[in-house]
Write a structure and sequence with these properties.
Number of strands: 3
CATH class: Mainly Alpha
Number of helices: 5
CATH topology: Arc Repressor Mutant, subunit A
Largest sheet: 3 strands, antiparallel
Strand order of the largest sheet: 1-3-2
Distance between the termini: 32 Å
Protein name: PadR family transcriptional regulator
Oligomer: single chain
Strand content: 15-25%
Number of domains: 1
Radius of gyration: 16 Å
Organism: Nonlabens ponticola
Structural class: alpha+beta
InterPro entries: Tscrpt_reg_PadR_N, WH-like_DNA-bd_sf, WH_DNA-bd_sf
Order of helices and strands: HHEHHEEH
CATH superfamily: Winged helix-like DNA-binding domain superfamily/Winged helix DNA-binding domain
CATH architecture: Orthogonal Bundle
Shape: elongated
Length: 110
């Protein structure tokens, strides 16, 4: 994807949707799943992901569980009920936006 600003503007929606579908995941796992599912066309940088994860946690949209893995603490993120409601709201807003853009950009037959 050439224009990363469109992608960054939807990072919250992507994270919530992915966690809803996949269940509990840790940060690096999220970055790799997005890369895999988009055949490498979208890459989430950790510098962009972790502020979003922390914000979603502070808003009560994610629950965090720390686990010790190979003598390291790894944080796993899981969507909460409030996060699911936000996910649905974000998806609805994104659908409305896409419909509006289609109206503006795709010419109607005369």
């Amino acid at each position: 994807m050439q224009n990363t600003s469109l992608f960054k503007g939807n990072l919250t929606t992507i994270v919530l949707q992915l966690l809803d579908r996949e269940g509990m995941m840790y940060g690096y796992e999220i970055t790799q799943k997005v890369k895999e599912e988009t055949n490498g066309s979208l890459e989430i940088k950790e510098g962009a992901l972790y502020p979003v994860l922390h914000k979603l946690e502070a808003q009560g949209f994610l629950q965090v569980e720390a686990r010790k893995v190979d003598n390291r603490i790894r944080k796993y993120y899981k969507i909460t009920e409030a996060g699911n409601e936000e996910r649905i709201s974000q998806l609805d807003a994104l659908r409305d936006y896409l419909e509006t853009m289609q109206q503006l950009l795709i010419p109607k037959p005369i």
